[in-house]
Every structure is written in C-alpha cells, then in structure tokens.
Amino acid sequence: MTAGRVALVCFGVMVVTSEFRKRLRLDYLWWRYLHVGLALTGFATAVWHVLGAGHFTGADGTRGLWLAITLVWVGLIVHTRLLRPWHQSRNPWRVVENRDEGDDIRTLILRPEGRALRDWRPGQFAWLAVGGTPFSLREHPFTISTAPEKGPDISFSIKPLGDDSLRLSQTLVGSVAWIDGPYGVFTVDREADAKGFVMIAGGVGITPILANLHALQARRDPRPVHLLYANKDWDDVPFREQLAGIARDIDLHVTHVIEEPPEPWDTGDHTGAKGRIDADMLDRLLPCQTRDWPHMMCGPAPMLAAIRAALADRGTPLSAIHAEIFEMV
C-alpha cells in the first residue's frame, strides 16, 4: 500500500510540474530529468503495488495479464531510452550554418553524416539535441523548416524565448547534433483533394507553414494559398524575403497583420492589415470560397483559440481547422 501511495504522489507531482513549469521557474533540462525520474519511480511503485497488494491479481490469469502489461511498458522504456538513442548515435548530423532570420530568430542548417532523414513530409517536426550524446535528455521538438524536396540538409528555426532555446540558438557551426524524427501530421500532404489552403501564423509559428509553402513551391502546385501572418512590428517580420520569393512562383496571397505598423503602412508587394486577427478581419481578407478549404494555423495558444472560434462563427467546419500550438522551451 505504501508503494501505491508513492506512485500516486509521483504522478501528481508530474502533472503539477508539467502544467506549471514556467510559473515554478523550472529550468527545462532539470524539469526533463525530474519528469523522467518521477515517471520511472511512479511506474515501478505502481506495478509493485498492483502485484503486491493482491486485490486485483488473485483471479486466475490476472497476475499474468499484469505481468504482460509490465513487460510491455519495460519494453517501451528500453526502446525509448536505449535502442532509439543507440540508433541515433550511428547517424550523427553536423551544424553547417547558423543564420539570422530577423526578430531574434536563428536558423540552424544541419547536414547528415550518416543516413539522411527518411519518409519526411513538409510541416513535420523532429527532436533536436546538440552536443553530448543522444542518450542524454537534452532533445527538444522543433519544426523542420525545410521542405523534403530541398533535402538532405534540414533546418530548424529557433526563437530564444526559453532557457534551452536560447542555448540552441547560439549553437556554433561545426557542432554535432542528433535527430529523432520525423513526427507530426501538420502537412499539406494530407489534403491531396483540397482546392486551396488558408494558412494563419503568428511570429515564429510560421516555420511549419513555411515548410509546407516551400514544398508547394518545389512542386509548382497551382492551388491558391491565402496566408495571414501576424507580427508585432513590421521591421522585425522574419522570413519576409522568403515569402516574397515563394509568392513569385506559386499562387500565394500574403497578408501581413501588424499590431503596431509604421506610418505610412505599406508592405510593398503584399496586402497589409493593422491590429490582430479577428472575425471581422477574416471576413474582410478571405474570399467566401475559402470557408471549406483546409485551414492550417500555428502560433501561441491564446491566438489559436480566438481564431478557431472566429472561424467556426464564419462557417468553417471544425474538420477543416488544423492547428499546431507553438510553445518555446
């Protein structure tokens, strides 16, 4: 019974420290160590409690079932913490460029020194670790901002708003890196029958959208794309030139939504809007025929929640709204 209480405490602390990590000012790396330690301790003591207490394992075959479940979980732990890092250690990557994109965003360009990334779709993410070994807990999830058609080199665009993201943004050229991926389904490849796309991004949340746009550009996809890109200041909008180049090759309509635009407010080749994206702005900027198109959004959670509600009021089906929340670590 004591083991059961220990397991309950471990799982409770895991939930609290995960939900309120930033409020508790826990360093990301130390939180990872704490999280893994609590998970392993909680799992082990929970199994000990279930098997030892006997209330749920007395019936015929029940003990064997719990032992089988335990072995499955042990197998997952071995795969995640031993086998997968071992596989990564045989396929190192090298940082070949650290590029300034504006608005404090840095793009790391990585080149494979072993096997290149396989089965990779635009908009997916991977776990990135720089330095050390893949057996450490220093990996972080970042969107692959390169389109698969432009591989085998891959890139990650990082804005240093968190403790470890600051360290990663300062990575030196020549550093060894480890990649685990790809993962995720935020990709235009899921929408082969779509007539067009609406894409909405906030700040560095543009990176998975940019990867999808690069893929459409490489494929010379004729379908129209309406992009609403929200930023605070016009001078610090990242990837402005890349978006302009893509718009010259495909049917891409870019609207820069700036909270505090300069006077006079002129975006040059693109449409500009002032303020924040809301229901009125969506009605004003998006043609009626786009309501049923796939809507791909990436940005801070409050922004996405507000836009999702506005899209629903506009008549966009929930099945057509795909969001990826952007959180810095």
Plain-language structure description:
The protein has 329 residues and is of the alpha/beta class. Helix content is 37%, strand content 23%. It has three domains: 2-89, no CATH class; 93-183, Elongation Factor Tu (Ef-tu), domain 3, CATH 2.40.30.10; 188-325, 3-Layer(aba) Sandwich (Rossmann fold), CATH 3.40.50.80. It has helices at 2-19, 28-53, 62-89, 163-169, 206-218, 240-249, 279-285, 301-314; strands spanning 93-102, 105-112, 125-130, 140-143, 154-158, 176-183, 197-202, 225-231, 252-258, 271-274, 295-299, 321-325. A six-stranded antiparallel beta sheet has the order 4-3-6-1-2-5. Helix 8 links the parallel strand 11 and strand 12. The longest helix has 28 residues, at 62-89.
In round numbers, the mean pLDDT is 87
Q: How much helix, percentage-wise, in residues?
A: 25-40%
Question: Strand-and-helix sequence, N→C?
Answer: HHHEEEEEHEEHEHEEHEHE
Q: Look up the CATH topology of the largest domain.
A: Rossmann fold
How large is the share of residues in beta strands?
Answer: 15-25%
DSSP E strands, number? 12
Question: What kind of sheet is the major sheet?
Answer: 6 strands, antiparallel
In short:
By secondary structure, the protein is of the alpha/beta class. It has 8 helices and 12 strands.
